[in-house]
Design a protein that fits this description.
The structure holds 2 protein chains of 2 kinds. By secondary structure, chain A is of the alpha+beta class. Chain A contains 21 helices and 23 strands. The N and C termini of chain A lie far apart (about 70 Å).
Chain lengths: ~625, ~450
């Protein structure tokens, strides 16, 4: 449900009408993708632990804190500073048999997993990248606690690649092999809990250039990249094995990264609403400019309001004060009404501020704040006093927050920071996906200065012979499959086989049954994904197709066996063996002798076919019964 | 030709740079048979091969390009890295205790140069304040760099200089001393300082880090804060090692300098007190004593500094089938002292009896310790022990082998009278010999045992 709010720059209009590529072009929309696929290896990337998720209770927990390290200019990286301000205690849950002292950051890395490296190189080749002659392990800093070391070990395997897409090329900036991070279990207040099972699972990160100019295209390119990676047969499938980040900017805006989009389908809406949000924030900046507020004239004053609320009956504030906390308020001069400015169908500028407070000040129990642009019937007396204390005029906005003294201090500072950013446009952020396909603040976008070499790992030469060897066994790309089969298969089925990862099996099985590629394609779409995923056909499946081609199984029997997805028993094959035309004719003869059926010939044929089918079961296909029955009836 | 502009490059990689007129820190476009790569040429590690050129790409990743595929290098710019550590003045507060931090070379605090990956140690108070500002809440900090070497290169020269520097500071009335040290031989240095510096009126705290401080998860900042707090505010006038208690960021332990040992090659909680409990648990603002019998802080400035050190002393780690010449070699080369880490209660095999006899005759001081680390030498239980003692080998109680080694160096440095040496060796000075081993002085929990697992599940590891 849309929130009531002030409509600046015709946001509602934008939301409703921006739908065509031309509209996005006028916004100057640009999208890039960073997609992550876990590799189907047995062991992790820098240690010998098995890959896999755990849901049983953890064996042990360890606690760490992350400190920012100063950047080259003696300044903290934006993200680093933010994470430090949040002062989180990071808990890691671990299982003895799937996590070792490497993941706990108590042992240096072991040599990189060669199986994973070979897969990453293969994928980079499929994406037409230039492969590094010598690979270097780098550290990419993450201070959110998701990796116990505080950095992710990552390797650029290939650069400057491309994929064909509708007659043009989409640029691939880089393909990296890297270790996965922990799974977040819980994040409340100052404690964040991670589970370490997923940590260090090998994955590839594919980074595209910002070559997509509509949400639709971003989504389709994402799907195509997924197709390519899956067809290698060497990436994992299933929940949590694939994650994509989408970078979005519009003209005059800033790059914003939407993190961890679980499904390709969601990309379209997310990009759309992000474009809208950025447009709204730029409009907000214009409005501020009209009011004479820019980065220099921006002013925010805050004050301690504990006294004013000493006797309050307002539930959440009462609770904070009873716990020894405090109440603070900040005045955003000249912002009156703007906290209600709509930035998406479901969110206002106040939500932008709230996201910051929640993440950075760790005040995460709703309601997080109150502001003067919304009706505040519950505490009219206190509002008056707060406004008086801050000398707020009717042209100003005031925000109230409550909680522990330290968190309130952080929150007040953060509100002022976000207010000032509004005068500059769109803050550099990574944003998380909400159920409504909106996004909410996750963290400040890290700068480029968070990469440095991993001094624990030597450079690894990748000899040309090894590359040649990998190249010799390269899986085919979707483009190659399309080229091969576009004339022989209906396009929809072909795409289904590619997306389902079963095109290679199709290729293999259709050789056994050359006259009926459509039928082979059709049965493969019935296979579960776990069976396809770029893998070779199961021997029993080959066997079934051979029997079918030799006329020993009916279509229906084949379909039923494939659906069951397991090697059929010999007795099942016996019981479902296809009847020869003679045997079928004999049965038809019997059925015709026993039944007269309706007088109308068509109806009778239909009726008799049903009777015959009842006798034959899966041993005959309907079309054969009809064919022979029609012949007999015509005699 | 200036070597610096080809830093670390040799062989064909260097030839390629020379040929195309490129150098380290050049911003370049390298055309190889694979395509075009853009970035900055980084220095090459001396130990890396001579076949690749390392490029830092714009997104921060490094990539190696085979020199033999290089067809052209176009220099588009030049960006030399300049190292500079940000400094801000360490605040002075007359109310706070004065602590001096001696640097020996281990990197306790540092910052990173992202462009090159070089780790630059932060050491001056200003630099430390930039890296660990919380230190200013604890004390007034002064720093002095004694030397800059890895801890495995520490030796008598450094031990003497450190002891003397400590003595000087104590006489000038400092409230506490912190010694930054690499962790590999921190317990060796703690042991020798325990003998060279006696009767200190203030805490002397050795500290280091197991994860270098360029990592966000480093133990360095917490170690440094705990050490500064120990030196500034506690009454433990002992030489202690201050390092992580558990692997979690929970608290540090203060270990007696003569009873501590590095027990894991990489864990944060690698330092353990052997054969006793640690002296105390410490956080950046609280001390929880475990033992009560430590020496207390005094207000005087008296201290005994004795930096005697005999260098011709060795540790022999006994193993089955050890050949007699292992001992003969030392004796023939003029060694004056040998500490044996024997098996079990302090044993070696029969073939060593004769060389030990020869050592005795040549006036070499030989002491027996146990390679089990925990427990006392007891050479009366078996004939073997008695036979060995007959050949002049002196049981060294529950002194750790490395500690007995340091003490023997120190004792032999003072006298060649073996009786006097024995007296020095067997008179406890700083907890290296204890009269009793408490039962909780030997606790090595074994994983997998239900009650241990239950304990771990309930507590933070």
């Amino acid at each position: 449900m849309p929130v009531p709010g002030v409509d600046f720059g015709g946001i509602s209009g934008i939301i409703a009408f921006v739908k065509t590529p031309l509209d996005y072009e006028s916004l100057g929309l640009r999208c890039g993708l960073e997609i992550h696929y876990q590799l189907d290896t047995r062991k992790k990337l820098f240690c010998r632990c098995p890959v896999g998720l755990r849901n049983d209770p953890a064996d042990a927990t360890i606690i760490r804190h992350m400190r920012p390290t100063l950047s080259e200019l003696g300044e903290y990286d934006g993200t680093a500073l933010m994470e430090f301000k949040t002062k989180k205690e990071v808990h890691y849950e671990l299982h003895y048999d799937t996590v070792c002292t490497y993941e706990m950051d108590d042992t240096p890395p072991f040599p990189v997993n060669q199986e994973a490296l070979a897969i990453a190189i293969e994928l980079a080749m499929m994406l037409n990248c230039q492969i590094a002659d010598e690979i270097h392990v780098s550290r990419k800093q993450y201070l959110d606690g998701s990796i116990p070391t505080g950095f992710q070990r990552t390797i650029a395997v290939g650069v400057n690649g491309w994929i064909p897409f509708r007659g043009r090329r989409i640029g691939i900036m880089q393909v990296c092999l890297e270790e996965d991070a922990c799974r977040e279990i819980r994040d409340r207040g100052h404690v964040i809990v991670f589970r370490t099972d997923r940590l260090s699972t090998p994955l590839v990160e594919v980074i595209t250039h910002a070559d997509m100019h509509t949400p639709e295209k971003a989504m389709e390119v994402d799907r195509e990249l997924g197709n390519i990676l899956r067809l290698s047969g060497k990436v994992r499938r299933g929940i949590g094995t694939v994650r994509q980040d989408v970078n979005v900017s519009i003209r005059g805006g800033t790059r914003v990264e939407i993190k961890g989009v679980p499904r390709t389908k969601q990309i379209r809406d997310l990009v759309h609403y992000e474009a809208v949000r950025q447009h709204a924030l730029l409009s907000l900046r214009e409005e501020l400019k009209l009011r004479g507020i820019n980065a220099d004239t921006f002013s925010a004053e805050h004050g301690d309001c504990r006294e004013i609320f000493a006797q309050t009956t307002c539930g959440p504030i009462r609770e904070a004060l009873d716990k020894g906390g405090t109440v603070g308020a900040v005045k955003l001069t000249g912002f009156a009404g703007l906290l209600n400015a709509r930035v998406s169908p479901h969110r206002t500028f106040a939500d932008e501020i709230e996201g910051r407070i929640r993440v950075i000040a760790c005040l995460d129990k709703p309601p997080i704040m109150l502001h003067s642009d919304e009706p505040n019937g519950a505490i009219p007396r206190e509002w008056l006093l707060v406004k008086k204390k801050l000398e707020a005029k009717y042209t100003d906005s005031v925000v109230i927050v409550w909680g522990s003294a330290e968190d309130v201090r952080t929150a007040l500072a953060e509100i002022a920071i976000r207010g000032r950013e509004a005068t500059q446009g769109i803050p550099n952020e990574t944003r998380q996906v909400m159920a409504t396909m909106d996004t909410d603040f996750e963290r400040i976008l890290p700068g480029p200065d968070r990469m440095y070499p991993d001094t624990d790992s030597p450079p690894i030469p990748v000899p040309a012979e090894r590359l040649d060897e990998i190249r010799r066994h390269l899986a085919r790309t979707p483009a190659e499959w399309r080229e091969r089969y576009s004339r022989r298969l209906n396009p929809q089925l072909l795409e289904q086989l590619i997306t389902g990862g079963s095109i290679a099996q199709f290729d293999e099985l259709s050789r056994l049954c050359e006259n009926e590629p459509g039928f082979i394609g059709y049965i493969l779409t019935a296979l579960p994904r776990s069976r396809t995923n770029g893998r070779a056909a199961a021997p029993w499946l080959r066997d079934i197709i051979v029997r079918y081609t030799a006329g020993r199984l009916s279509r229906e029997a084949v379909f039923s066996i494939v659906r069951a997805d397991q090697p059929p028993e010999a007795s099942t094959l016996e019981q479902t063996s296809r009847l020869s035309d003679e045997e079928l004719r004999a049965i038809i003869g019997r059925v015709r002798a026993e039944n007269t059926g309706p007088r109308d010939r068509n109806k009778r044929t239909e009726y008799l076919a049903g009777r015959v089918k009842a006798v034959t079961g899966m041993r005959a296909d309907g079309r054969d019964i009809l064919r022979l029955l029609t012949e007999e009836e015509r005699k | 030709m200036n070597d610096d502009i080809y830093k670390g490059y040799r062989g064909i990689a260097r030839d390629a740079l020379v040929k195309f007129n490129a150098k380290v820190w050049s911003e370049v476009e390298i055309t190889s048979s694979k395509g075009v790569f853009k970035g900055v040429i980084l220095p090459r590690s001396e130990i890396a091969d001579d076949k690749h050129i390392v490029l830092k790409m714009i997104n921060g990743y490094n990539i190696g390009i085979a020199a033999r595929f290089v067809e052209d290098i176009k220099e588009t710019g030049y960006k030399e890295a300049h190292y500079k550590i940000p400094e801000s003045e360490f605040p002075v507060d007359a109310e706070k205790p004065r602590v001096v931090l001696f640097g020996t070379g281990g990197t306790i605090a540092s910052r990173l140069d992202y462009r090159t990956g070089a780790v630059i140690p932060a050491f001056t108070p200003g630099e430390l304040y930039g890296a660990v500002p919380e230190l200013a809440d604890i004390c007034n900090l002064r720093t002095e760099k004694l030397f800059g070497i890895f801890s495995e290169n520490m030796g008598p020269v450094q031990y003497r200089a450190t002891a003397e520097a400590i003595g000087r500071e104590i006489k000038q009335g400092v409230d506490g001393i912190v010694v930054g040290h690499g962790t590999d031989t921190m317990h060796h240095t703690a042991a020798i300082l325990s003998f060279m510096v006696q009767h200190s009126p203030v805490p002397i705290v050795l500290v280091g880090s197991q994860r270098s401080s360029d990592r966000p998860s480093s133990d360095a900042a917490l170690n440094l804060r705990c050490a500064a707090f120990t030196a500034a505010h506690t009454d433990i006038a002992e030489i202690v090692v201050c390092m992580f208690g558990p692997t979690s960021d929970k608290y540090n332990l203060l270990h007696q300098g003569t009873r501590v040992r590095k027990m894991h090659s990489s864990y944060r909680s690698t330092f353990r007190t052997i054969g006793d409990t640690p002296i105390a648990m410490v956080s950046p603002d609280t001390l929880i004593p475990i033992k009560q019998d430590y020496r207390r802080r005094r207000s005087d400035c008296g201290v005994l500094i004795n930096t005697a050190f005999e260098e011709r002393v060795a540790i022999v780690y006994y193993y089955p089938n050890m050949q007699p010449d292992m001992i003969d070699l030392l004796v023939d080369n003029g060694y004056r002292g040998i500490v044996i880490a024997g098996t079990g209660l302090g044993h070696v095999n029969k073939p060593l009896y004769d060389p030990l006899q020869r050592a005795k005759e040549k006036g070499v001081a030989v002491y027996m310790t146990v390679q089990t680390l925990w427990g006392y030498v007891q050479m009366y239980v078996y004939d073997t022990g008695r036979d060995i003692m007959e050949r002049g080998v002196v049981p060294a109680g529950n002194m750790l082998p490395e500690v007995a080694y340091m003490k023997l160096c120190w004792a032999l440095g003072q006298t060649s009278d073996l009786e006097r040496v024995k007296e020095l060796m067997l008179t406890p000075i700083a907890g290296e010999l204890t009269e009793r081993e408490p039962p909780n002085g030997y606790l090595i929990f074994q994983g997998g045992i239900p009650e241990v697992e239950e304990f771990i599940a309930k507590h933070i590891l």
